[in-house]
Amino acid sequence: MGQKPYRKVVVGGTFDRLHLGHKALLRKAFEVGEYVYVGLTSDEMIVNKPYAEKILPYGLRLRDLLKFFEVNGLRNYRVIKIHTAIGFADRLKDLEAIVVSEETYKGAIIVNRAREEKGLPPLDVITIKLVRSRIGPKISSSLIRAGLIDPFGNPLTQGKSKM
């Protein structure tokens, strides 16, 4: 051990319909951190997201995350329910880095501002590129909930396809 650049890193999200983008984000967190804190959004926090009524409840999203960790042999993590965008990231003194996607980079800035207000050192920000879908610039849970793509970014055809 001790080969990873950071001891403790944080990553957060809704992680609805765990897709390739989520998996890339989570894998990066485990790649750079010896211990990964995962902030998982509460059901109350997601009511304004697109297709919110189709977002899986917290318990199922947690189950899917834990299954992903188990299948991939990922250990040394703690999942914590969060109720705000900052979650617990402005309270854990010994966090060293935050892992985000290009799309959620602004969240890292907000977290670091909150940490600095509390006299904590800012986190290093590790950013991954968005994982492209076949029909657009990114795989997203919103597109999956809308029934437009599958969790691998493949387009879903509604009814009969015109070949």
Cα-to-Cα separation, first versus last residue: 53 Å
CATH-assigned fold name: Rossmann fold
- In CATH, the homologous superfamily goes by the name HUPs
Round the mean pLDDT to the nearest integer and report it.
Answer: 90
The number of domains: 1
Order of helices and strands: EHEHEEHEH
Number of strands: 5
Query: Rg from C-alpha positions?
Result: 16 Å
Helix content: 25-40%
Label this structure with key terms.
163 residues, Rossmann fold, five-stranded parallel sheet, 20% strand, disordered C terminus
Write the layout of secondary structure elements.
Layout: E1 6-13, H1 20-32, E2 33-41, H2 58-71, E3 77-82, E4 97-101, H3 105-117, E5 124-128, H4 141-145
Parallel strand pairs: 1-2, 1-4, 2-3, 4-5
Describe this structure in words.
The protein is globular and about 50 Å long. It is of the alpha/beta class. Strand 2, helix 2 and strand 3 form a beta-alpha-beta unit. Helix content is about 30%, strand content about 20%. The chain is built from four helices and five strands; from the N terminus they run βαβαββαβα. The termini are far apart. It has a single domain (about 5-130), classed as HUPs (Rossmann fold).
